Amino acid sequence: MLTGCSYAQSVYKEVAKINDSTDYYLEIGLFNKEEKKSVSKAILFTEKAVAFAKNKGQKSKLGAAYLQLAYVYYDIDKNELAIDNYIRAINAFDKKNPTANLALAYYSLGKCYLKKNKIAVAEIYFEKASTLYESLNFLDAIELINLQKGIIKKEKKEFSEASRILQSVIENLADDSFISTKIEAYYQLGEIEMVQEKYANAINYYTLAHAANTNNKTDFSITKRILKQLSVAYEKTKNTKQSLVFLKKYSQLSDSIHNHLNSNASENMIDKIQFDEQLKKIEQLDKEKKSQQKTLRFSKLIFILSIALISILSLLSFSLYKNNKIRITTNTLLEEKNKELTSEKEKAEQASKARAEFLSTVSHELRTPLNAINGITYLLLQEKPKASQLNYLKSLEFSGSYLLHFINDILEINRLESDKIQVEKISFNLKELIENITISFKEFIQENNTKCHLQIDSSISDYLKGDPTKLSQIVINLLNNAIKFSKNGDVWFTIKNLYEDEKSIKLHFEIKDNGIGIPLEKQRTIFDSFSQGSVEINRTYGGTGLGLSIVKKILELMDSTIHLTSESQKGSTFSFELEFEKGEKSEEKLVPKTTVTDGKKKIVLLIEDNKINQMITQKMLEKKGISCVILESGEEAIENAKNNQYDLILMDVHLPGISGTEATAAIRSFDTKTPIIALTAISLNENKETLLSFGMNEVITKPFEPDFFYEVIHSYLATNE
Q1: Are the beta carbons of 74 and 112 closer than 8 angstroms?
Q2: 179-195 vs 159-172: helix axis angle to the nearest 10?
Q3: How far apart are CA 649 and CA 638, in angstroms?
Q4: CB-side exposure of 224: number of CA atoms within 13 Å?
Q5: Closest residue by Cα to residue 561 from 508, 504, 503, 498
Q6: How many other β-carbons are positioned within 10 Å of the β-carbon of residue 228?
Q7: 65 pLDDT band (50/70/90 cuts)?
Q8: The whole model's pTM is what?
Q9: Average pLDDT of the chain, as a whole number
Q10: Distances (CA, A) of 66 to 75, 116, 166, 644
Q11: Listed residue (442, 450, 441, 434) closest to 490, CA to CA
């Protein structure tokens, strides 16, 4: 830190040649501050220097006056007043021809903000001071700023960096004129060791500070701090004897300062009385002089003001008339424009709502016939068709799967745009999730002859808290694109640990390929819905053009952004960052994957109003040896369930009369054990959590995949058994 003496030397250099009253008042103010220890007189004379410099238009001297006034306020711990005057000083100095005083003002302002714990602001002013000192070649002064930077690093708890900076300050200051800076550096190193409970190291640094401070007869505050901390540090090491020695020295110094202040009280009082009398005389003479000047100027001023007033009134009257006309015209135009904007806004909202509802209805209604297509195709494939029929059925199966994927993407886009999606926070195993996703792409990777390289930072915790479903959607879409567009190439999937503390972790995800790449002119629109870069790409590689749009919208929900770097024919890199809470291993209830073959024959109640879906579901159940009772309404299902015992109930959600959810709630009022599984062409207004809240155990989405259908049915039949 800058001491009073070093500051005084700086100011004395600026005012060495006294040739006007500004310099005189500055010297008198500084003399009262440094020699007579009279703060009130120092402030009074420095304020007179400010007034005189203002009156004479002396900008550089005005800056020096504000700088000295700020220094006085800082020294008596009036931090806000110090900040105000340092800023005034900076504004008064010439920025085009900077001096050491301007650099000193920036540096001192940084110290003030550091005292207020506004570290970011303090760093800005220290950087400005450092730049000026370098341009002025004041290398020793730069070490003063480095001391403050070290203190800032300490406040940020970056202890190793703080220690490095402070050690560098000590090594670079060989000149004893900056001994106070060395003392402060040693003291701050001791503070760092104390925070880290390394008390022996702290004692060593405090001792070095104390030794360097032996000849200090003016700055008692640092001496008191060193003695107090030595006492505390020795107490921490159980060395009571040494602790008491330094505590005694600290107390003696405090008493000495107190007695010194008391002994000077009467002398200061006499000085104050004499000073007040002199001040009154000066003020009286000043008033008489000003009174004479006012009398001479009064007549001129009245004449000028009269003319000015008449002119102003005339202009105001004309201006009010014109403004009133303009205001009336403007208000009329604004009202018309507001009506137009309101109308257009309502139309846009209605169009957006209608579009969402239309797409949702279309995607929902397509699922029912698509379920019939996929279901019948599956049943025909199971009946060992002829070789000539097999190709047709395989093509039909592929087309059904492609259409289902397209419908799912449309529904997902609408769900994301409807603001009905909520981000979950559940515990999941990240590494297991990523490995399962990559395994699911095994067949696709082989088809494209692509090499997939997976690298997960080993320091990442296994269990995190977040939304694994949405993370899976992002990764699956990006991996699918990378593999699809990198035939006979390579795909790299990397997850890095960016930042970690006790409660959270921030990860960087990157999926890179060396495929066809994306031209620069297409990169701005590649995240728009139904955009694939070009018609040729769509025809060659297929796809809906919704994957990247879904990725972008999901990441926006999770407060993140997708980044793209790509070059045509050289590949693409997609990356994003996500922050997770650290999770714990959850006890998962494992449902046995088994077929139900032992014991009595199972009976399933199917509530479905569509005849084709009835036939398909019944056939699929009978192929596994499961009997099926079919009903077409919710009312029938409730009455039948009261009078009969079933091993499982398959409930369509959309039924004539009461819905499947209402029927489920009614059944649960008298039967809480029988598993109820929803069969639904899920729409925009539905989600799995809502359906489960009515008492359903699981949801199978139509058109369902046979393997998943059998897995869910068998698991609940086995559990119910």
Answers
A1: yes
A2: 160
A3: 11
A4: 12
A5: 508
A6: 18
A7: confident
A8: 0.42
A9: 80
A10: 14, 21, 31, 95
A11: 450
